[in-house]
Amino acid sequence: VRVGVTSTYDHVVHDKERLLERNAVAAYGVLVESDRHLTTGQARVEFKDYKENKALPGVESQSGTNYLVGFLHMVRFGRDRHYLRGGYQFDYDDTNGRNYQYVGHRFVVGAQYTLPWFHIRLA
């Protein structure tokens, strides 16, 4: 089992004015079940503070907090040259303005196959 925590901070500027300040904290854990199977879990909280146009109604405010939790399972083959993966993420954006709030469900599927020539990867 491996665990970790990351933190990021963004200061976005447009036309020499602050557009967005955003910071996030994410935690993840990786469970290596065997040589072929591993599962990653993640959780993230992101705080977003947009420079709001005071003339807009409050329902148009994009500032708020975003929450994400999810997992990803991988099955690896051929010394990690090939893999299959699948997972799920739940995403909730709790904004000050109701026009930007959402609840999202994301299903993740993917595969990679490495050709025997020149290490070309098909993903």
Task: Provide a descriptive summary of the structure in words.
- With 123 residues, the protein is mainly beta.
- Helices cover 0% and strands 70% of the residues.
- The chain has strands at 2-14, 17-32, 37-50, 64-77, 82-95, 102-114, 121-122.
- The protein has a seven-stranded antiparallel sheet, with no helix packed on it.
- A hairpin with a 4-residue loop joins strand 4 and strand 5 (82-95).
- The chain is elongated, with a radius of gyration of 19 Å.
- 0% of the residues are buried.
- The model has no long low-confidence stretch (mean pLDDT 93).
In short:
The chain is 0% helix and 70% strand. It has strands at residues 2-14, 17-32, 37-50, 64-77, 82-95, 102-114, 121-122.
Helix/strand layout:
Blueprint: E1 2-14, E2 17-32, E3 37-50, E4 64-77, E5 82-95, E6 102-114, E7 121-122
Antiparallel strand pairs: 1-2, 2-3, 3-4, 4-5, 5-6, 6-7
